[in-house]
């Protein structure tokens, strides 16, 4: 196959996620395999504006698959949202001979790519990379699995000490607009309650009753998971104290969830998706985003992708509540 | 909903896998939720024969979601393969009032369940639990993700020391009949070569050439992953020495891959699948196995499931080779 | 050797620490070895007051060595600080035939043991268990090593994302009165600055200058470690912003540092110290605390131990600062 | 203080160990702090012979503290054992202006440094780096703590699956001439038996009896730790089968124990010892090795250090056996 592009660039944009380096490695090596030269653009779209660009080859990408963070750095760019900023970026592309851009990030990254492509005619493909798993067009985003496991490991440690002291723990996990991470982690740690922004919260039903039921069944420590977007986890703790007499300890896991060596799954997804992104550019396609649907790798038009909606898995929520409240039926 | 069964048993059979305890917890708690009593059968089908049965409740399953191994123990049972053995097991069911059995394990477990159901009329549902991901009817088996990450972590450590000494490493991972684990881990660690039983091996093409190409590109250490079923990894190492002059070190990861606290994914899949299994029994169904297809949870007739075939993901194999041999195209 | 006591009790008191379970196991098994019966007292001194006591044997302590938290639970007891409370506890000892008590905890635990022994004549030995390593008479306290590694692992993750975004990170680690943990972790993560309560802080010299020096040397991300006792880490972050223009992210590691499976070192120290504690009771000694001095296991009178003072390792502080400011000398 | 040397080199030699990179970083930065320039010598003494030398600065050593392996590579050098080889190395030192060498490794490294210094008059200081902790003059060697924890983590996983299957496990850990690692790990995992080269083995007393005692006390799975130097762990397994009827599984942990990000302790010791080594050179000293004795950092003449003897901690061995055989006294 003859590639439609000769030289492309790869960048990471928005919040970083474990596996971004694995995706960069895959994009660079897939390019080499398809006879394309691939340059690294640093600091997201800013690097495209300022010409902050570096060469990438086989040895430079050696060992990259297992490293957290992104060696290309990432940043948000206000200037790229302006026509003028994008004009500068187009000049950089001309200067460096870049005919295509692979952008690894979230919805904001896709919007940037799309406007750039529409205005300046450079081919673009997006790759989903965010720990929040909140991109509508895809079932999976790079970084999600590692973040879930990192949060889970911290919560498992907390459980040890909560159990020793017979306490309640309120843990805030990342997710400003989406509760995927909180819900997944909540199921995985056997939480007594999980609060997410997608669900209107009835405090009595969603927090107090499960705690009471678990207490009645003989449990003496309780784990409550709160997604960042729900509001202050300190308020949640205060309310638990008011309703139950327990004196919960609050832990905000924070940016720790964004780091660490990527899990096997994140490395695999990043490798696969990075490869697919380059293939699309090689085939002369543009304005696409690679994604996973029904467990398979697909791609969408960016416009189409941005118009999609994604909810939480309702069945997971149901299963979670069933297993928490299990004692309702038999023991009482 | 009124459940079709009042009392069931849960057992783990065959090789153990991380997440089996999470599945047991889910089966017990889902039962409670649906008004069913669930007993624990110990040591696989042997416990059904000997009446080695224990009660399970909310507090006993508390904390179980994060523990490796299986608290119900597991074993293979020769006696259960005989009519007589299954007769004894049927008596135990009568004695304890067990109307249904959830069996967590692999194909051998399903066959045992099926023959028991056909001969003795007890309702049965299988749940896929094995680190090998080699059950044909399902895209995912409980334990696979943890095993991949455990193997990967060990290999990442090996890479450190191989890099210091500029050596080649041959790592044997589990998989007597299937190379899923080896292939997944091989992609995730950036292996130079991966040997699996599903692929006829051309040693020159599959091992020697990738090593030569990587060497030419400046690499000084090499990782070769071998699935158990391919044959002796010591023979592979000897052949590498003969062809390349390198003096590889062999590591057999062994049973370590079977243990450890389950990953977030294994806990989620185990929780989901355990719940679904009980739901099937509650609905009066039998001879079913829960599974994942196209990223969604489904269930199959056991006969149908056992007749299915499953190959490795050819695209993964292609991507792996492309990224390894990337330098062929540009650098040489 | 004939033991001076026939039956003893073991309890954990104060904040929990990884390795407390390993110490409990060692106390129980060492007792069995020396022909002593050992009972478990639950919820610290409260269990002694209320008779919340459980038997402990070989199988019950099997697997305990690797589990975080304390299976005997821990609590602070206000009642035990009163004569009346201790009277009740003495009655419990009479009732259960307890001639000696091993108390695992910190200075508060030792004080409780001492007053109890002095007032009621029960033999007592203390074992140092706290993640803070702030017990004056001993170089090492059970839980310290695990806590250091847990904090370090979290900080390593943070470094990944701080590096991607070229940010400054302020991390608050435990240590209300002591900076041992902060200093150790600060050296181990290569922190740019470490703030501890033992050192009067000159913000310019201790924080601003190291950041400026590292910046000048080409560094773009910075890690500042703050011990809990220094004050609000949010204030530290605000001050860094004011002085350097950087916009630091704050992470409070919190109770996560208290949990998790104990490290090899904590298991070893716990095993050793637990054994030594029982040996002292068997030899008819009382009012002792086991400890480590100059790398060797010793024991002290509790009064003597409580009168000791312990500072931070000044040499560590010097080395830390030397390595941070290394560029001063050559590069500038 | 005015340094006695202006330019020095640092190298790693022999088997690699986690923390070697932390030691390199410390040597480089301590040098900068003391006004000394420090170059990196690659591939051990070979790099000194061939002039395989690289510059090292603040940014190059940034992040190094947490990385496994050694960025300077390591190797054994036959040529350096000859007068001629050392002559070449002395020429390299003249060419690059190297007045001192810090060598990180074991006894073999020290011997090489000593002969080089004696013959060619270059100042030398040794730093103990090996996972085996088998250097006589020091209580601690860099890499030991990480190796213990890595082995322990693998064994904890094995315990999960051994428990599920009620099996015996024989685990071979590193240590060709020394059983420190095996003994430490054996205590930390709660092994039923530990075989080390320092102790003459009475199979009945040391393996069979503890297994029988544990069995009698109700235990159904057993962990036997064997140091590499004892002989084939497969033979040990065969003998266990013969004597007890159990069918043990063998796991050889191998080179995995040498890799991985160093633990907090190894980073601290490496930082401290690296700093001390440079200080000795700056003070005009030579033929020294830094070490830990009685928990404090000291240094010795290399000749003196090589003449020392080091046994295992007999008390640890006694405690281990006491806790294993605990049930002898009470239960039987």
TrEMBL record, chains A, B, C, D:
Substrate binds at residues 130-132, 167, 174-176, 228, 249, 255-258. It catalyses: beta-D-fructose 6-phosphate + ATP = beta-D-fructose 1,6-bisphosphate + ADP + H(+). Its EC number is 2.7.1.11. ADP binds at residues 25-29, 159. The active site is at residue 132. Allosterically activated by ADP and other diphosphonucleosides, and allosterically inhibited by phosphoenolpyruvate. SUPFAM superfamilies: Phosphofructokinase (SSF53784). It comes from the Bacteria. Gene3D superfamilies: 3.40.50.450, Phosphofructokinase domain. Residues 7-281 form the Phosphofructokinase domain. PROSITE patterns: PHOSPHOFRUCTOKINASE (PS00433). It is found in: Cytoplasm. Pathway: Carbohydrate degradation; glycolysis; D-glyceraldehyde 3-phosphate and glycerone phosphate from D-glucose: step 3/4. Homotetramer. Belongs to the phosphofructokinase type A (PFKA) family. ATP-dependent PFK group I subfamily. Prokaryotic clade 'B1' sub-subfamily. This is ATP-dependent 6-phosphofructokinase. It comes from Pseudoflavonifractor intestinihominis. The lineage of its organism: Bacteria, Bacillati, Bacillota, Clostridia, Eubacteriales.
């Amino acid at each position: 196959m003859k590639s439609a592009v000769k030289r492309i660039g790869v960048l990471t944009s928005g919040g970083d996620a474990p596996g971004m380096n694995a995706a960069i490695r895959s994009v660079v090596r897939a390019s080499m395999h398809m006879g394309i030269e691939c340059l690294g653009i640093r600091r997201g779209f800013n690097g495209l504006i300022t010409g902050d660009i570096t060469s990438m080859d086989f040895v430079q990408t050696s060992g990259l698959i297992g490293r957290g963070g992104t060696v290309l750095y990432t940043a948000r760019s206000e200037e790229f949202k302006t026509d003028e900023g994008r004009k500068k970026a187009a000049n950089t592309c001309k200067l460096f001979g870049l005919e295509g851009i692979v952008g690894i990030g979230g919805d904001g990254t896709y919007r940037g790519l799309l406007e750039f492509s529409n205005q300046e005619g450079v081919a673009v493909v997006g790759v989903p990379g965010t720990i929040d798993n909140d991109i509508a067009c895809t079932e999976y985003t790079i970084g999600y699995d590692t973040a879930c496991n990192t949060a889970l490991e911290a919560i498992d440690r907390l459980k040890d000490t909560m159990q020793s002291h017979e306490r309640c723990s309120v843990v805030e996990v990342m997710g400003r607009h989406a509760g995927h991470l909180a819900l997944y982690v909540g199921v995985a740690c056997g939480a007594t309650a999980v609060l997410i922004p997608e669900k209107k919260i009835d405090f009595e039903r969603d927090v107090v009753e499960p705690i009471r039921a678990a207490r009645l069944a003989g449990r003496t420590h309780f784990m409550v998971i709160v997604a960042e977007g729900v509001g202050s986890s300190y308020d949640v703790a205060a309310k638990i104290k008011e309703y139950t007499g327990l004196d919960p300890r609050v832990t905000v896991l924070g940016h720790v969830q964004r780091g660490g060596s990527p899990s096997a799954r994140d490395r695999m997804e990043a490798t696969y998706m990075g490869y697919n992104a380059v293939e699309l550019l090689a085939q002369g396609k543009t304005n696409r985003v690679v994604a996973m649907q029904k467990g398979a790798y697909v791609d969408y038009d960016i416009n189409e992708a941005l118009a999609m909606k994604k909810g939480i898995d309702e069945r997971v929520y149901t299963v979670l509540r069933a297993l928490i409240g299990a004692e309702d039926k038999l023991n009482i």
